[in-house]
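seq:
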Amino acid sequence: MTSHLKPPEIFLSMPHPCSYLPGRTATSLFLDPRQPLDSRQYAGFMRLGFRRSGDLVYRPHCRECNACIPVRIPVERFRPDRGQSRIWKRNQDLSVIARPPLYSPEHFDLYKRYQAARHPGGGMDDPDPKKYINFLASQHIHSVFYEIRLQNKLLGVAITDILPDGLSAVYTFFDPDEKRRSLGVYAVLWQVAQAAERHLPWLYLGYWIKECSKMAYKGNYRPLEIFHNGHWIQQDSPIGSRP
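struct:
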């Protein structure tokens, strides 16, 4: 089906402090938010290295820095390493339940605990409900809030966009007290398995940033494809390290 929506205009943001690398200034390309995308159009921009935050679709575009590298996992060729395989087996007692992308007090309470423990002082550790849901949900793109549960206990939520050619791992938050489970890794592995079940070729992970410990872990999944000079290039060896 051909989308009836016209292509959106693209703008360049004003310079602003980089969210990932202290002391650096960033600029971003962003799509006109007045022209909403459907999932098919958004998938086309994902293939060009774009990403969303709520309904804002953007891509880093910094004059003197190219540290933010779009990455995706080729689902059929992905092979977990030994550590990832152990994490997968360790969490087979968990269940994953699909929920609509709506505000839930239970989700929000876990989100606040996660931010306070994992990202204190990062600007997201004292959120309000409206900012929270505007950051994670989208009005026009098919998204699912996947609950990760141990029986009735909520351990994590993986926000996932479902696109015609893949899944996009938007954001995952989880119980900071469950360190042994490595729930962030488990969520990625589960989304790979979900993409395979849906016969979708890619899991988009967003931006790998070597110099940022919170974003460097994405380089541990292999093979991994990086978007470089307008093309997706496969990397067979790890390009980062787990934080």
